[in-house]
Amino acid sequence: MSTIDEIIVKTKQKDNYFEIIRAICIICVMLIHCQNGIEYEDSPLFSFNYDYWLIFRQFVNFPVAVFVFLTAYFTNITKVEQKPLKYYGSRVRRLVIPFLVWSILYSIINIAKGGFNVDVTKIIFNIVTGQASTPLYYIVVLIQLVIITPLLIKCLRNKYLNLVALCITPTFLIIMYAYTYITKDQIPFYATVFPGWFLFYYIGLHVKLNGFKSRKKDGAGSKNVSKALIIMGCALLFSIIECYGMLYLKFPVGFASSQVKISSFLYSFSLINLIFAVKGNKIITKVNFVTRIGNYSYGIFYVHCFWILIVSKGMSYIPSIHNILPVYQLIELSAILVLSMLSIIVTNKIIGNKLASKYLGF
Question: How many CB atoms lie within 10 A of CB 67?
């Protein structure tokens, strides 16, 4: 049994492996927020875009789960237990301040788009629930999980509380499926409340405390990766099958394509298993474009939706580009990624890294 932390201590060089993982995750987040395929469902000529989108979504339905896991995995357990106020203070600075700044900025954009009709109650509600912009619910989830982190560490050290904790997300999923089967609608804010993502955070803390179990025999590394790939492939196939099964049962397409469903969770866990199987004892110190994306991932998370608004508006003037969704998404993703990174670089140059990080997450 070993932990990545023990490996990192043995080297003075920074390990960029997890920056690569963050880069992959944030790219998938942007892909999820790019043009979707729902509008093509009834298209007489381009309905293939709908099926492409449904299947492709299953491939990229893991980033939030992995981000939640990594947040827990890189939690400073000593600080949580010995200096909880300092821990909460650091989390407030990192999460709450940029979240509020961007929520206000996106609220202003929403007001402008809505003809400057101001409903203060609705604006406040949308900010609190992370609805000022599509991805901000994720920060609301993290804030909830950060608040209960000291309690979760105690649960991990008590076998009875541990069993109760492990049942939270499965119970939530059962309720979600039952509600949707009966009503043919989704539970409001199902992705915004912490139980849906709880298990990934909890397992992340578990791996932080106890390490990731892996075989250390000669040649075991490649076998572990092969097994992890097979498991991930099976989970992905199950995700595609469940997606179409849910549509057959008249579940909402938003649920069938969602990251919050049984098969997507199994797929995400299989990917986390693959991440650690590939990691092994290797240290990646090389800095390249991909690792820079990982370094900028938190800032990209906040700013990319702004550029989606601009880029999608610009692309609406290009004839026929909507007819082939994969091409549209690739162009949209490339533009959003480049513009988001340039925004971060320019902002850091103008106001400095410290202020950009504190207020904008850059």
Answer: 22
Reported pTM:
0.90
What is the distance between the alpha carbons of residues 265 and 197, in angstroms, rounded to a whole number? Answer: 9
Q: Phi and psi dihedrals of 15, rounded to 5?
A: -90, 115
Contact 272, 69 (CB under 8 A): yes
350 vs 343: CA distance, rounded Å: 11
Q: Contact 191/258 with Cβ under 8 angstroms?
A: yes
DSSP-assigned states of every residue in 86-148: HHHHHHIIIIIHHHHHHHHHHHHHHHHHTTS---HHHHHHHHHTT-SSGGGHHHHHHHHHHHT
The contacts of residue 292 (CB under 8 Å, 6+ apart) are: 341
CA–chain centroid gap for 125, Å, is 23
Q: Give the tens place of pLDDT for each residue, 225-249.
A: 999 999 999 999 999 999 999 999 9
Asked if residue 310 has pLDDT above 50, the reply is yes
CA distance 92 to 100: 11
Q: Which two tokens stand for residue 1?
A: 């049994």
**How far is the C-alpha of 194 from the C-alpha of 142, rounded, in Å?**
8
**Residue-level pLDDT at 281:** 64
Within a 10 A sphere around the Cβ of 205, how many other Cβ atoms?
23
pLDDT value of residue 181: 94
Please report, for residues 72, 233, 257, 325, 332, the alpha-carbon distance to residue 308 in angstroms, rounded to integers and kept in the order given: 29, 31, 20, 15, 8
